[in-house]
Design goal:
CATH topology of the largest domain: TIM Barrel
Largest sheet: 9 strands, parallel
Radius of gyration: 26 Å
Distance between the termini: 32 Å
CATH class of the largest domain: Alpha Beta
Shape: globular
CATH superfamily of the largest domain: Glycosidases
Structural class: alpha/beta
Helix content: 25-40%
Number of helices: 18
Strand order of the largest sheet: 5-4-3-2-1-9-8-7-6
Oligomer: single chain
Strand content: 15-25%
CATH architecture of the largest domain: Alpha-Beta Barrel
């Protein structure tokens, strides 16, 4: 099976989305000149070119793309060629309105923006497949082609009649009979029992709360329906060019796709990451998404999009201060990226994204952004051979699951303040700040190679997942689990006792009496720390160790954190410093160690292969102690005992003994 290693060929791919159809053809020569100057070796073509290639139904205009492919190849720039199926041309919506998605209340989502297609529409799928077929036949053997990029940021939702019919087919395949569906959905509640398949609809706008399991299944279905579209196009291009890897770009922590299922269908796992330059923890967010994508890829991954400067979709769009683009790019490489790419190459002059930065901004080649891009391109070329294809070791796994996320976000839950992604981020932050490398894993995955496993919060856990966690601890692993976990089964049915009995026995919990969510800006005092968001009324079994108890309120004297052997349970969300201390203790007892001890504040250390990346997220100069003599690959200098890092500074070190 082709892979990112085949496309990268011992280097780091560097470039971005290229949209030359927005510019006069005389600009193209200037583009490739500047690409070479910046060290660009890869561009993505055709993402939003459907109307250019097929201006009317059945027409094909490839001449302009032929010239571009030849031009880029002549300048040694490889092409990630996209199927342009993310945004159908206006003629499709005008002539085939049934391809347009409908919202929950039945209103039409019209053309005039992008991604205005219903994934269940046979007409859309037929046109998309036909265009993909012709594109693949024409360019499968072109020497510039390095990667196929299918569609773009799959994110459409639809509640139309065609979707309803597709949903019913999906449900029939899942449940077999209406009786089994009624049992799974708990339709005895509110007189929701279905008698025939034809009665079942997507969870459209309703009088009051919708059936939570129906909503959960519709989210599962929507991810699968979009995946069917991807697989159809993937199979077409793979048939024409079996040696060319195929990808599609994820949006980070996007709730609409089960990325575990999707990544299994990709040759390359790629993602678009846009940390906010004003976020003091933007580096941690970048690190978390890098860890998640690397875990989905089970190795090197592709940063398909990032911003060289400001974006255009935040309320206030801040540019990146000097040096931050370089720092976050090197951080992605440290955490497994073998491709560092941007949206986009040349900043647009018209359209909705004309204020979204490019590698080449409105300031042109004299602008600060382009100068920084050139510097980064040179550095990536310098370290590419040493880093490409290597692994990032991790001793701790963080469990993450889309079903649990979807089910836990339902209406009518104990607290609307409980944001699954924020809880996951807080736990990752705690481990990131301790300097311990992490991966993400599915709850059912083989966890045996990890010294510790962290479960920030998984409301829904399957029987297989619970058995897996119990088996992991019995096999000598260390498990630390957050609140409101193991509450529901795969059908969102509350387990007896409010937590599966196997987990209660594992953690030494006799009874979970009540969940006690906390209000906004409300905290609770515990032994040694304060906490917020959530608390639980737990009665421990005799012999269970109470690590910390609640000290005030209704739960005073009851356990906040408890453990039974190697299994820890945290029934609240400690404040950041306390959570860092707690998870650091758990990891240390399990034998997990920081990559490099004694780091100054704001300095991150990551080991990739034989290289040690030091990344400084602060603005003042710091000195970092390092073992022995090291060569900084970015500068070629030998450092002994310590290295100085300035504002947003970075070093990529290799031991002289390893040479």
């Amino acid at each position: 099976m082709p892979s990112l290693r085949d496309a990268a060929r011992g280097r780091i791919l560097f470039g971005g989305d290229y949209n030359p159809e927005q510019w006069p053809e005389e600009v193209w020569e200037d583009d490739v000149r500047l690409m070479k100057e910046a060290g660009v070796n890869s561009v993505t073509l055709g993402v939003f070119s459907w109307a250019k290639i097929e201006p009317r139904p059945g027409a094909r205009e490839f001449d302009w793309l032929d010239r571009l492919m030849d031009l880029l190849h002549a300048h040694d720039v490889g092409v990630v060629l996209a199927t342009p199926t993310a945004s159908p041309p206006p003629w499709m919506g005008a002539q085939h309105p049934e391809t347009l998605p409908r919202s929950e209340d039945g209103s039409v989502v019209w053309y005039g923006s992008r991604q205005q297609f219903c994934a269940s529409s046979p007409v859309y799928r037929r046109y998309a497949a036909a265009l993909t077929e012709d594109l693949a036949a024409r360019y499968a053997n072109h020497p510039a082609l390095t990667v196929w990029h299918i569609n773009n940021e799959y994110c459409t939702h639809c509640w139309c009649d065609e979707t309803a019919a597709h949903f019913r087919r999906w449900l029939q395949n899942r449940y077999g009979t209406v009786e089994a569906l009624n049992e799974a959905w708990g339709t005895a509640f509110w007189s929701q029992r279905y008698d025939t398949w034809s009665e079942i609809l997507p969870p459209r706008k309703a009088q009051y709360m919708k059936n939570p399991t129906q909503v959960l299944d519709f989210k599962r279905f929507t991810s699968d329906a979009l995946l069917e579209c991807y697989v159809t196009e993937r199979d077409i291009v793979a048939r024409h060019s079996p040696d060319i890897p195929v990808t599609t770009n994820f949006m980070p922590l996007w709730s609409g796709q089960d990325a575990w299922a999707w990544s299994a269908q990709e040759d390359i796992v790629s993602v678009d990451i846009y940390p906010d330059p004003k976020d003091p923890l933007g580096g941690q967010y970048n690190a978390m998404l890098a860890d998640m994508t690397r875990s989905q890829a089970a190795g090197p991954w592709m940063l398909m999009e990032q911003a060289a400067g400001p974006v255009n979709w935040r309320g206030v769009n801040h540019p990146k201060p000097a040096g931050l683009n370089r720092l976050w790019s090197l951080q992605s490489v440290a955490r497994g990226a073998d491709a560092v790419c941007y949206f986009q190459w040349r900043q647009s002059r018209q359209g909705s994204e004309k204020f979204h930065s490019g590698m080449l901004t409105h300031a042109g080649e004299q602008g600060r952004t382009f100068r920084e891009v050139k510097g980064l391109g040179a550095e990536l070329a310098t370290i590419g051979a040493a880093v490409s294809g290597t692994d990032v070791p991790a001793d701790v796994a963080i469990l993450h699951d889309w079903d649990a996320w979807w089910a836990g976000a339902q209406e009518g839950r104990p607290s609307a303040l409980l944001d699954y992604t924020e809880v996951v981020r807080s736990w990752h932050r705690a481990l990131w700040e301790t300097g311990i490398s992490t991966e993400f894993a599915r709850p059912e995955a083989d966890l045996g190679r990890f010294k510790a496993v962290a479960v920030p919060q998984l409301y829904l856990l399957t029987d297989a997942a619970i058995d897996n966690l119990v088996g992991y601890v019995r096999g000598g692993g260390t498990l630390v689990c957050g609140f409101f976990s193991g509450v529901a089964d795969a059908d969102d049915r509350i387990r007896p006792g409010g937590m599966d009995v196997r987990l209660r026995e594992l953690f030494g919990i006799r009874t979970l009496h009540e969940w006690w969510p906390l209000d906004t800006d409300t905290t609770v005092e515990c032994d040694g720390f304060r906490a917020g968001l959530w608390s639980e009324e737990l009665e421990p079994e005799r012999g269970t160790q109470v690590v910390s108890a609640y000290r005030d309120g209704e739960l005073a004297g009851l356990p906040a954190v408890l453990r039974k052997g190697r299994a820890w349970y945290v029934s609240t969300l400690p404040e950041p410093e306390a959570l860092r201390t707690l998870l650091g203790r758990v990891a240390e007892e399990a034998g997990a160690r920081p990559v490099l001890a004694g780091l100054p504040a704001d300095v991150e250390a990551v080991r990739r292969g034989e290289l040690l990346f030091l990344l400084h997220h602060g603005r003042s100069t710091v000195t970092v102690s390092v073992p022995g003599e090291q060569v900084d690959l970015l500068t070629g200098r030998v450092v002994a005992g310590s290295v100085a890092l300035g504002r947003y500074g970075a070093a990529v070190l290799r031991s002289r003994a390893a040479r």
